[in-house]
Structures are given as structure tokens and as C-alpha cells.
Amino acid sequence: MSDLKAVPKAIAGPSNFLDERLGGANALKRNLRKVFPDHWSFLLGEIALYSFIILLLTGTFLTFWFKPSMMEVAYDGSYAPLKGVMMSEAYASALDISFDVRGGLLMRQMHHWAALLFVAGMMVHALRVFFTGAYRKPREINWIIGVLLLTLALAEGLTGYSLPDDLLSGAGLRITEGVAISLPLVGTYITFFLFGGEYPGEAVISRFYSLHILLIPGIILALVTAHMVLMWVQKHTQMPGKGRGNQNVVGAPFYPAFMAKAGAYFLFTLGVISGLATFTQINPIWLFGPYTPADVSAGSQPDFYMGFLEGALRIMPAWEINLFGTSHAGTLPLSVIIPALVPMGIIMTGLALYPFLERWVTGDNREHHVADRPRNNPHRTSIGMAAITFYGVLWLLGANDEIAANFHVSLNHTTYAGRVLIFVGPALAYLITYRICLGLQRSDQAIISHGVESGVIKRLPHGEFIEVHTPPSEDIEAHMRGKEPVPMLPVDEDSSGIPPKGMRGPVGKLRGRMSKAYGGEKIPIDDGHGHEHEDEHAAIGSGGDERSITH
């Protein structure tokens, strides 16, 4: 038996060697037993992490053959329709990767699909954190890191999307140039820095390449590391349930349970991306041809994560401000500046400031390690759904030409509808979501008070049919009873009619009204141990005329 428990020499020797010099055995042992909660939604962030790893691996492969140069060459590769066509070295090398490098097209498509999944994974993960309130103290810094990561991912996608120098990516690059040059004061400097002169210049591909493979990935890698370290130190949030609180974590240890789960999930993510790259074509650059500033392809669309900026540009009226008459030096093209800055500013700035704004409104300075159910904070959930609707309308209108062509409606009508929906849609989403949250809270209250439907129909002595309710299981009841009232500031005046400190003055009064509306208990959960027909049930249980039907 002692031989079975002995550590193999091949493991014990190197382990002792490292421990005697680094002294990490106790810390490693302690961290390997760190407990992680097992709720499925906590794995959404893993999708982004694993997609980023796949991006690094496939991107490294592509750098061996890609040439970030705008020097003109005559194509002489395997794709016959483009033979002899003049194009940039960047586009020619992208074609060579697709047709002449073994496994090149698979790697290109894996890289592109992984990029889409990376951004989508971060978006879904951010929504999970927002709707469950997992950004609250002590996790505000980690939340801001996540917002920075999402912003950098959009910039990384833009620079990578432009590198092949095909007609489709060139159209996106032209929009980027238009947005940059429209910025007051600094627009021309930014444009000349990126393009190395007048558009299209000769340096934009090489400069985007440096940003795409060095600067932005390096920052993302550093922020991901900081994000993971903070999560590890602060411990993971958990959903409310039996035996769960702010002082403990209920789940499985990192080793072996979570490590096995994470390994399997990485392989699953890799398999999905590989399957998409194998069977679903994406970004066929050979069909678009090389980019020339004089050509524009019809029906061109950016990747989904840039769709909301495209939609903002399409529905924005042609407004501009001329500060000095008709002089171009004093022209502010609002039709470009507003779509480029306002939607991104609303979404990203709102996300970054929300933890602090919520704490200012509620006065809640406690640490939170148990996540909220979205229904239990209806205003937060409604704000989130309004933001999603705002984003979704812009994203949908980024394809207004395709919508008009395929559904045979006027392009102008889709544009006008978008201008209305961008304001009406979020307001409706807020109101509808708020009512749904209150309805779900009432449903929880009914289950706690009266139990759950058992499927058993009983006839009472006086002829009435009722369905027997049974108490919910302990886990479900504990999950529902994990609800806490949304904190709110003391806003009521004291006996002398003086408002509390901090609630005086215009700002204080506004804060008090906001706190009263945002916080408090909307639908309290009753203990309700009795049922409506408890006396009748007791009579049935003691004997008497009864008939039961189960379904």
C-alpha cells in the first residue's frame, strides 16, 4: 500500500529541486485547492479567453508568410482569375496564404472566426457581470479592465480586418480615414500619422500591422493577466443558493475538477472554431479583388462588432456646422463626428462609470460576493436591456441597404424608421423589461407563499376541484430567498423637517429621488406558510369524499 501512495521519482525529484530553490510548494498546494462555483454562466468568460489563445496561435502562424507592404507587384500565384493583376504585396501574400501555403486558408479562417468569437465572448461575459451586479465592490477595478479589454478588442479587430488590403477591407479603411480626418484640431495629424501622407498613403498597412501584432495584443495580454490575477485574489462571485454567502464559496476545487472542466471547454471551443473554419467560408478576399480608392463594392458589411458604428453613420442626418462661413477650416461634419464618437462614448463610458454611479445612487459600500438574479434589480436590468436595444438598432441599421433590397422596402423608409427606433426602442425596452422583472418577482413570491404545482387535482367535499401545491425544493427556495432589497439612501426628513446630510441642495435632492426610485424592495417575498385551501386539505387528509386525478 505504501508503494501505491509513493510519489513517482520522475515527479518527486524535479518537484523537490524547484521547491528547495523557489519555496512554492505550500502556495501551489493551497491554490490548487481554490474553490470555483459551478454555475454555467461563469464559463462565458472562458470563451473569450480560449478564443484569445487560439488567436495568438493562429496569428503567429500567419505572420510567417504575411508581408505588410503596400508596394505594387504583379500577382503570379495559384489563383488564376487574378494572374497578372497589379496589387499590394500585402494582398498578394494573403492570397498566397490562402492558396499556396499548406493549411494557410484553414488558419486564416480560424483566425477570423476566433476574432469574432473573442469579441462576442467578451460581450456576453460583460452582460453576465452587469446583469448579476458582479461589478460591485471590490470588483470595480476588474470591471474597468474588462471595459478596456472590450475597447481594445474592437481596435484590434479593425486593424486586423484592414491588413489583407482587399476591396472590402479597403472600404472600411476609407471610413476609418473619414472619421479620423473629421475630428476637430487633431484629425489631420491622426490621418497623416496613420497613412503616412495623403490617403491612401504607403504606410498604413505596415503601421496597422505593428499595432495588430505587437502593441494592442501586448496590452491585451497584460490586461487579461491582471484580470485573472484580480479574479483569483478577490475570489469568484457565486449565485445565491443553499449554504452560499459572502463569506464562502460553494463549488469544486481548481484541481482536478475545474482544471478538467476548463481543459474540456478549451478543446470544445477549439473544435467549434475549427469546424466553422472548415465548413463555413468567411472573408473570401480573392472574390473582392485588390483595393483601389476608385472602387466600392455593393452590399459591403463590416464584421458584426463594427456594425453599430456603420449603422450610426447610415442613419445620421447630413448635419454640419460652419464656424467661419463656407471655409473648410471651420467646418465640423456632425454627420461623421456624432456617429463615430457618441454611440461608442455612451456604451463604453456608461459601462465604465456604472458601478460608481450605482454606488452614488444607492449609498451601498458593502462588499458583494453573491451575485444578483437580474429580476431582483429591475432598474439595472432595464437599463441593460435599453442599452442592448440601442446597440441592436444601430447594428441592424448597419445593413439597411440589404434590408431594403431583400424585403423590397424603400431605403429611405428604413433610414427614417431607424432614426425613430434609436430613441423609441430603448425606452420601450426599459418599460417592458421593468414590468417583466416585477412579474418574475411576483412569480417567485407565489412559489414561496403557495408552493409549486404538483400536477395532482383533488376534489373537495363540497365539489370544488383544486390542484395540490407542494413546497419547493430546498435549493430552489434558497435560490429565491437569496434576494435582498436594493439598497437606498435615507431620504426621509427627521422630526424637525431637516433632510439627512448629503440630501440637501439640488444635487442632494436629485440623488435622493433617484435612490428612492432605484432602490428599495419592489415585491417583498412573504413567508406564507399556509395555502388557500389549507383547511380543506386537512379535511381531506382526515378522511372524506375525495377523488384525485394526476396528469
Task: Give an account of the 3D structure.
It is found in: Cell membrane. Keywords: Cell membrane, Electron transport, Heme, Iron, Membrane, Metal-binding, Respiratory chain, Translocase, Transmembrane, Transmembrane helix, Transport. It is a multi-pass membrane protein. This protein is mainly α. The chain is 60% helix and 6% strand. The strands form four sheets. Strands 8-7-9 form a three-stranded antiparallel sheet. It has a two-stranded antiparallel sheet with strand order 1-4. The longest helix has 40 residues, at 411-450. The protein is globular and about 90 Å long. The chain starts with a helix and ends with a strand. The model is unreliable at 529-551 (pLDDT under 50).
Summarize model confidence as the mean pLDDT. Answer: 87
Widest beta sheet: strand line-up:
8-7-9
Q: Distance between the terminal alpha carbons, to the nearest Å?
A: 56 Å
Hey, roughly how much beta strand do the residues contain? 5-15%
The count of strands amounts to 9
Structural classification: mainly alpha
Range of helix content: 55-70%
User: What is the tally of helical segments?
Assistant: 20
What is the overall shape?
Answer: globular
What's the story with the biggest beta sheet? Answer: 3 strands, antiparallel
Q: How are helices and strands ordered from N to C?
A: HHHEHEEHHHHHHEHHHEEHHHHEEHHHE
As residue ranges, the low-confidence spans are 529-551
Please provide a brief summary of the model.
The protein is built from 20 helices and nine strands.
